[in-house]
Specification:
alpha/beta, Aspartate Aminotransferase, domain 2, Aspartate Aminotransferase, domain 1, 2 domains, 7-stranded mixed β-sheet, 5-stranded mixed β-sheet, 15 helices, about 15% strand, binds pyridoxal-5'-phosphate
Length: about 400
């Protein structure tokens, strides 16, 4: 069996593929079986018992909701990249978060959440669906917010959509014995490994950078053995399994993850600087700009600032709407982490379900736009954005006259 011990780039390419040479193949096959032949009933019963207890693998996978070898390869690889004992994959990022909350439920019915969070996470916590008592707070307030029945502290860094960085070590210190879940979707294991800073659970919406091409939905959590066992039990019961074909594609996506993340980041650095120089710019939120990282976490907690940028141009909502309409190379769409660049309006889309007052308190203004920088040439993206901004700022009357003349 070949070794996958090495630098992150090598691990990305080789993890979860250690047995391929012995199998005489170059890429893994996709196991689409929903059920598996049972020739030895007592042995199969043993396998079933083990899987129901949360084992990662068994001699007989029995049924695809209990265990799938293709999905397992992706989990093994992701766990290695995060420096975790184990990982558990689900059908989406929201399915992962739901499973984590359900798994934590046994330890108490209270959750402490650090805002801002992804709109869906925020809404899941406020909806009452999981019958949790939730206290929203800032990092400094975690210790005061924790109670004897607190089972989980939830945070996101960089946070969606303001790109605020949260000090994971400080959060862990404040949480004391309560496990800390870090949604690391924006960072990926290439830029940040939260377990090394004391987090207990690292969550990714695999739909974003891990897949990387805008064509797979999935989610994954990297953690220690005991949490993984509990999460697999939840997955068996709730059924939010990752489809094997998606497991294969996510595993393949990991192979190019470092290259994609680093290239997107290099372009984002350039774009953020250019945007910050624009005379009509009200604010640019990016951890690579001095103002975006007041605690100096880039370099200490994160290897780099990543490839998401939020910004606001003078003129508020009206101008933001026009910019998102005027771009040609960027696609106006939610989601992020794809090979192509996307632009979206958080207050109107991803964070629509968050209380408007909470949105404003956390800087999610009606004029704010968020860009996910892809792999296009930096000059082309810069030109597209500057052109869209210029057109959006130009005299509205002039544009409507033009439209009349063209009609
Ligand atoms: C998209 C996203 C999620 C939800 O993931 P889905 O795969 O869409 O269910 C959770 N957290 C963050 C930070 C996200 O960007």
């Amino acid at each position: 069996m070949k070794s996958t011990v090495g630098n992150l780039e090598s691990t990305s390419v080789h993890a979860g593929r250690e047995d391929l040479r012995d199998l005489g193949v170059h890429v893994p096959s996709i196991d689409l079986s929903t059920t598996y032949p049972i020739d030895d009933l007592p042995l199969a019963t043993q396998s079933l018992d083990a899987l129901a207890e949360g084992a990662a693998e068994a001699i007989n996978p029995i049924y695809s909701r209990l265990n799938n070898p293709t999905v397992r390869r992706f989990e093994t690889a992701l766990a290695q990249l995060e420096g975790a004992d184990d990982a558990v994959a689900f059908s989406s990022g929201m399915a992962v978060l739901t499973a984590c909350f359900l798994a934590a439920r046994a330890d108490g019915g209270h959750v402490v959440a650090v805002r801002p969070l992804y709109g869906g996470t925020d809404h899941l916590l406020t909806s009452g669906l999981l019958s949790f008592d939730v206290t929203f707070t800032e990092v400094d307030g975690i210790a005061a917010a924790c109670r004897s029945d607190t089972s989980l502290v939830v945070l996101e860094t960089p946070a969606n959509p303001t790109l605020v960085l949260v000090d994971i070590e400080e959060a862990v210190r404040q949480a004391g014995t309560v496990p800390v879940l870090v949604d690391s979707t924006f960072a990926t294991p290439v830029l940040q490994r939260p377990l090394e800073h004391g987090a207990s659970l690292v969550v990714h919406s695999a739909t974003k950078f891990l897949g990387g091409h805008g064509d797979i939905m999935g989610g994954v959590v990297a953690t220690n053995g005991e949490w993984a066992r509990r999460l697999r039990q939840v997955r068996i019961l709730t059924g939010a399994v990752l489809y094997p074909q998606a497991g294969y594609m996510l595993h393949r996506g990991l192979q190019t993850l470092p290259v994609r993340v680093e290239r997107g980041q290099a372009t984002a650095r350039l774009l953020a600087t250019r945007l910050a120089d624009h005379p009509a710019m009200k604010s640019v939120l990016y951890p690579g700009l001095a103002a975006g990282d007041p605690q100096g976490l880039v370099g200490r907690q994160m290897k780099g600032p990543g490839s998401l940028i939020s910004f606001e141009v003078e003129g508020g909502y009206e101008v933001a709407v026009r910019i998102a309409k005027e771009v040609r190379m960027l696609t106006p769409a939610v989601s992020l982490g794809s090979v192509d660049s996307l632009i979206q309006h958080p207050a109107g889309l991803t964070h629509r379900l968050v209380d408007p007052e909470v949105r404003l308190r956390h800087g999610i203004t009606d004029g704010l736009l968020r860009i996910s920088v892809g792999l296009e040439a930096p000059e082309d993206l810069c030109a597209d954005l500057h052109r869209a901004i210029a057109r959006s700022l130009s005299d509205q009357n002039e544009v409507s006259t033009l439209r009349l003349r063209l009609a």
